[in-house]
Amino acid sequence: MHPRLITAALGAILAVLGLCMSTSIPWSLHFGDQAHDELLLISAACAILGSLAALGFWKAGAEYSVKDGFVVVTLGWVLAGLLGGMPYYICGVAPSFVDAVFESVSGFTTTGSSVMADVESLPRSLLFWRSLTHWLGGMGIIVLSVAILPILGVGGMAMLKAEIPSPTVDRLRPTVAATAKTLWKVYLFLTVLQTLLLWLAGMDLFDSICHTFATLATGGFSTKNLSVGHYNSPVIYCIIIVFMLLAGLNFTLHYEAATGKPGVYWNTTECRTYLLLFVVCSLFIAWNVYGEIYANLSEAFIGSAFQVASIMTTTGFVTNDWEKWPWVCQWLLLCLMFMGGCAGSTGGGIKCMRLIVLTKAVFRELRLLSHPRAVISLKVDRKVIPGPIVSGILAFIGLFVGVWSASVLALIAMQIDVITAVGAVTANLSNVGPGLNRVGATDTYEWMSEPVKWVLIFDMLVGRLELYTVFVLLTPSFWRR
Amino acid sequence: MRIIIVGAGETGYHLARRLSYEKQEVVVVDRYEERISLVEETLDVHAIVGRGSSPTVLRQSGIEGAGIFVAVTDSDEVNLVACFVGGKLNGHMKKVARLRHEDYFDLPEILDEKHLGVDLVISPEAEAVKRLMSALEIPGATDVIDFAEGRVKLVGIRLHHDSPLVGKTLISLREQYPSHRLFIPAILRESEVLIPRGSDVLQANDAIYLMTQVESLPTALEIFGVLATKPKKFFIVGGSTVGLRIAQELERRGYSQITLIEADPARCEAVAAVLDHTLVLNSETLDEPFLRGEGVAEADVFLAVTEHDEQNALVALLAKRVGAARVAALTNKADYHRLLNAVGIDMVINPRLTAASRILQYIRRGKVISVSMLPGEEVEALEFEAMETSRLVKKPLRKLKFPPGAILGGVERAGDFIIPDGDTRIEIGDRAVFFAKTEAIPGIEKLVTVGLSFF
């Protein structure tokens, strides 16, 4: 553990945060809202303090240890969450400190659950900052899945390795930094493309940018009170459906597809399973809601496809109030929340890959019952997943369920009704955003008490950091020399 | 012609023995003294102790005058280097190397003239599995050899004691089914291969070798009382190269009920990692309760292919007793091969036999199209194309003088299969298949190749 280096790294994160925040000042001036002074103050403070810390504590030639990595990632997200909430707090748009932090953590963890009921009344520059936190969070996740999670052996590269079908070496590129850069390029390219498409489809440029940020990070903040439903345009819905799905897939697949292997989407078990689930669930829900809720067939199809994509990629955009849908549809959406995106995507949740491994592990156990002496290797895409990784994945799922149960219990103890509690915890732990009942499609988290919000903030953070990154800091052996 | 054989293991030893019978000048090189003394004691060949890839040793073996160089040690790398070094010492000689690992075929150009200079690569395991697979495709077959690009097949079939053909002579068989064109050029009886005459009587437990055209195979099998059911349930004991290859081949052909049993846990993991839906079991004990428990009683095919010939034989017999329909055992020993047939093992997988066939075929290239050894290695099936200059052509067969222990097994002419009799004349371009005991082979070769009178 190197406290100096950790401080330097956190300082650098802070400085970058300040610089990024300053990009919302021009929007403030452009739209003539009143937030520019506050934004300038906060971003300047972050940039200056951060640079001082980074430069002051930096020691040339020093090397980060694995433990430093965990601390930097966890504290980095906490720090970003706390300081990213300052604009809402100081501008007075968030009623309390916890609300400001909730909104900001929800942004950086790409969750998208909000305490703001009337977002259209907020200064546009703050809306831009809100969406930008998503996008920055998404970039952070890419680094996380390339640099930190492989070490934990439960996600990221250790899993990517098992799931990339072509004979690619361990990573796309030989070093972590090069891999991250490659994936960032994919992310940037998709950002530009979606912004242009939305703009062409009739959204104004500001809203196009904000919605693109929220889509590709699988966040879900909108600049409209009715979320994407505001536009009531099938073209915009379809563009966003496609890009939500792209963001929910493994980003390395996009890179491989772009370098001349488009078959990779269908040849990868995880991606294939994911897309099939999308189609099947969309059709199932469309079949359930057609006639009773939507008289128009295409409306039923696009509505259900949009909501399924939005939930299973853990974006959380809303075009239809799913609380009006039959319970079976709502519960199906809740199940999809648990799964979340693919490994190596910006989506949250348990991840499709882990559930595939879990399913295969279950079938292996069943097969072992009838053939006790059988040796069955667990394979995905014809590649064996080594035993330690399998047990790491199973333990992850166990921990996920454990955190989920404890959080639901805490919420119920704090006088939240069961369905709301289940919906809220699932939606935040999986970084989706909207949940069920009182935190459903058209509701916000504003009405919840302060302790409940802190529990959900914790859920968003640990869910985003794939549990282990945070929980490893809570083990005594981590701090022992 | 001088032939140098590097490696006096099973393949090398028997190849040397085989070639020395044919009065070839054979030199055997091996690094182990005990193997070399065995060669010296039992065979009429020159034997040298030393590393086969050493230029000094190879010079000693008289490589400058050699025509063929065969590297068949257990190590792929030694074989390749030996061919390379041999090629440097004698550029005119043909080089044959045995390769076990298929990875080398990922980069085939390393074997070519400019690099290692290997003229023929043989991989005994791969070829044995290929021969087994073609036998598995024919119900009831114990062995299959293809001629004329597969248009004519030699199929081994075991006669059960309740077969209607037991007790009949070959002549009466042909009279009873005149339209079927059945011809039996060889019979494996007890542990001996006979080249039968028309008056020979079929006995129970004979494994007859039936020459037939592909088209008439189903009806022929019917006559022999073989039920044409497609096998479904496979068991493989032993996960070494051969076992794994068989499992992969079966998976590739779409069979789904495959069980592979292997004693070594680490090997099990490795095998399970490459196979898609084969059930891999880790078990050292292969007793009756275990086999029954895993369903061997309902097995259509049971293959014992561990690295221990003795264990293979016993496990296959046990499986047969438990109820497996067709059992096969792997052996590399010629004596065992004959014996296994005699004790009731339906199919024998003999990598050495197939490898030796390939090498012999290569050594005799230009004269023969294919060479296949029958079990026990005393009888070879030799396939020739009749040349204009051959003494064989355009004379009725009865006018030709066949060496004793040889028989013409069939003639393929423009897609038609002819069973030869005394009046048959062989035309130019015909494919002729002879069955000959070892001692008759030089005579057959003389018969079919360029007649002296031509010069």
Keywords for this structure?
heterodimer, A: 481 residues, mainly alpha, two-stranded antiparallel sheet, 1% strand, B: 455 residues, alpha/beta, Rossmann fold, Alpha-Beta Plaits, 4 domains, 6-stranded parallel β-sheet, 14 helices
Please tell me how large the radius of gyration of chain A is.
Answer: 22 Å
Largest sheet of chain A: 2 strands, antiparallel
Calculate the mean pLDDT score of chain A and round it.
88
Shape annotation of chain B: globular
The CA-CA distance between the termini of chain A, in Å, is 9 Å
Task: Work out the helix count of chain A.
Answer: 22
Model description:
- Chain A has 481 residues and is mostly helical.
- Helices cover 66% and strands 1% of the residues of chain A.
- Chain A contains 22 helices and two strands.
- In chain A, strands 1-2 form a two-stranded antiparallel sheet.
- In chain A, strand 1 and strand 2 form a beta hairpin.
- Chain A starts with a helix and ends with a helix.
- Residues 153-171 of chain A have low confidence and may be disordered.
- Chain B has 455 residues and is of the alpha/beta class.
- Chain B folds into four domains: 2-122, 3-Layer(aba) Sandwich (Rossmann fold), CATH 3.40.50.720; 142-223, Regulator of K+ conductance, C-terminal domain (Alpha-Beta Plaits, 2-Layer Sandwich), CATH 3.30.70; 233-324, NAD(P)-binding Rossmann-like Domain (Rossmann fold), CATH 3.40.50; 354-454, Alpha-Beta Plaits.
- Chain B has 14 helices and 22 strands.
- Chain B has helices at residues 10-21, 33-42, 55-60, 76-89, 124-136, 170-176, 217-223, 241-252, 265-274, 288-293, 309-322, 334-343, 351-363, 441-448; strands at residues 2-6, 25-30, 46-49, 66-71, 94-98, 120-122, 141-147, 152-158, 183-189, 192-194, 207-213, 233-237, 257-262, 279-282, 301-304, 326-330, 347-349, 370-373, 379-385, 406-413, 416-418, 431-437.
- In chain B, strands 3-2-1-4-5-6 form a six-stranded parallel beta sheet, sandwiched between helices.
- In chain B, helix 1 packs across helix 13 (351-363).
- The longest helix of chain B is centred in the first third of the chain and has 14 residues, at 76-89.
- Chain B is globular and about 65 Å long.
- Mean pLDDT of chain B is 86; it is low at 451-455.
- Classes of the chains: A mainly alpha (481), B alpha/beta (455).
- The interface between A and B is medium-sized, with 10 and 14 residues.
